[in-house]
Design goal:
116 residues, mainly alpha, 5% strand
Length: 116
């Protein structure tokens, strides 16, 4: 878990400092929780991205979910997003180092046609 988490951190010292401060605020505001350490890393990133602490009560994990997710990323799985803003927030260069590519089909002609 640590290797993948470190790979996905902010690249600059200032960016890491800001990120660390944000996570410290989340940890303080969230208080005690029942998530394991690896699960909490996911939940706090969701809270960080959304600003919504309600995810603490909404998220549940299969016991093998985090390990399986990390294994999938390390094996180069494709990443499918349904919102372009998610793709904008991903570091494609870092993901490419694992062989992962980000895909968004929301603006494809056939998807638009089906939505209409």
């Amino acid at each position: 878990m640590n290797d993948m988490r470190n790979d996905m951190r902010q690249m600059t010292a200032l960016g890491r400092s800001i990120e660390d401060g944000s996570f410290a605020i989340i940890d303080r505001e969230a208080g005690p929780h029942e998530f394991g350490p690896a699960e909490w890393q996911v939940v706090r990133r969701v809270i960080h991205a959304t600003g919504d602490f309600e995810f603490m009560t909404l998220m549940r994990f299969h016991p093998d979910a985090v390990r399986a997710g990390i294994a999938a990323l390390r094996s180069g799985c494709p990443i499918l997003v349904d919102v372009k803003m998610i793709a904008a927030g991903l570091n494609e260069e870092r993901l490419a180092a694992y062989g992962c590519r980000v895909h968004s089909f929301i603006s494809d002609d056939d998807v638009i046609a089906a939505a209409r």
